[in-house]
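User: Batch of two.

Assistant: Item 1 of 2:
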Amino acid sequence: MAMLSHVGRVRARNEDFLLCDEGRGFAVLADGMGGHAGGAVASRLAVAAWIERISECGAGGADEWDLQAAVEAANRAVFSAACEDPGLRSMGTTLVGVCFRGDGILFACHVGDSRLYRLRDGVLDCLTRDHSVLREQCDAGMIQSESSGPLALRGLLTRAVGVAMDVMPDVASFALQPDDVYLLCSDGLTEMLPDADIADVLGALGGSPRLAVEHLIDLANDQGGMDNISALVVSSRTAGRLGAELG
């Protein structure tokens, strides 16, 4: 596992926050919102609460109920802080988290438009569905794709952590396979890079997560870096495989 976050080339502060624990097999990323200090506070509170709850899981690892409970804990932490401090009342955050279990199962949860991707056999799939107005319009056939939607609706979420007393995360499970590469990322990356570019980077550098996250963020900044950019790569490839791919 490797992770990296960058403020980008436009924003004054970084409101993304992410953490991973390779030994225990979990990773989480949050993209805060709320202006001033609120977004940064929300993302950090959410990640801390999510990890605290996941860390309570036994040796068997987390399951879908644990991930549900972890997101609910994150929501309570952010919502409570916003209620107690008038300066934080508009804050909230996206969240995407994963737990890799020793039995070959990946459990994932998300709220908002931070995404989880999987590269398998050269094919990149997005394993999450954005909770956004543009995604709903796309699903309803009102627009051809999210990228073709009105700029005014870009980043407008239909679900977020901490904006209400309750939250409804999407939770799913997936079977792991050898050589899989996974990417958790904020929309600061996906707004700058098409899926084809993300697939190229993960395909070439998937055996070295550190190089992969560095290159993804460099590319996003090269394209304008309009938002905070965060990437977290989890790979089961070996360094030898990377060397063969790079020739």
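Item 2 of 2:
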Amino acid sequence: METILNVDKISKSFGRIKAVNQLSFEVMKGQVFGILGPNGSGKTTTLSMLLDLIPPDNGQFSWFQQLPSKESRKRIGSVIESPNFFPYLDAVTNLKIVADIKDKPYDDIDEVLQLAGLYERRFSKFKTFSFGMRQRLAVASALLGKPEVLILDEPTNGLDPQGIAQIREIIALVASRGTTILLASHLLDEVQKICSYVVVLRKGIMLFSGNVKEVLAVSDSVELSASDMPGLTAAIREFPGFISFNEAEGLIQVHFSMTVNTSEINAFLYQKGILLSHLAEKKRSLEQHFLELLQDTP
């Protein structure tokens, strides 16, 4: 896969506050890449450095396998701050102004408005737009000129459930067209639903990085049931990594100190003469994994 962004040990301090500390990661072409962390974790600072809005104190990064430049910046669309348009102008006129600033043609204004679900309101003044519509217009403006990369900082922040769903649909559609997306958010559920890869930050330090599906595949507990429950509870204690179990309503939920393989558990118990009637993984959500990481870090 082609590397779109390579970040190598970038750091940024504001006085005594270390906003970003030796951060490194790679974004590959076509990924929907999430930077996840609570408020104050360094997400916006990281994106601001990557967009050359502020310089890093140390480290470096490259776009499209080249040092950042004015030309590479033209290949990137971004929404970093709250939407800022002229309130008494309509959506089309506002986007024409953005296109002029970006030195982009007007050819795809209708297309990005349709993508953002705003085509029917294209001649409405910006001041009449709801907060969710303003967010969608900001995304539309970032898509002018068909950028290869779209950077979004907390795109669903402050939106109601309907607005969140609309932004999520737009991101999914843009990603399906091959655009690489870099998304910063503190909303764990949204990252879990939208992103294919995630980096978790806490106070500017990367705690974890990995494929979201791999994160979701982590299982440290399993539900079991058998006709011989006393034999099952005795036998499962001998399985490697066993910690404890809870029993309720004819099932036991067994906790392990490591990732477990259900087929290995089934084979192990079969050799012990235990025939299972129920076997199911209890997978951790990204939120559980995220909170565990925060708890384990001083």
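The longest strand covers residues 3-14.
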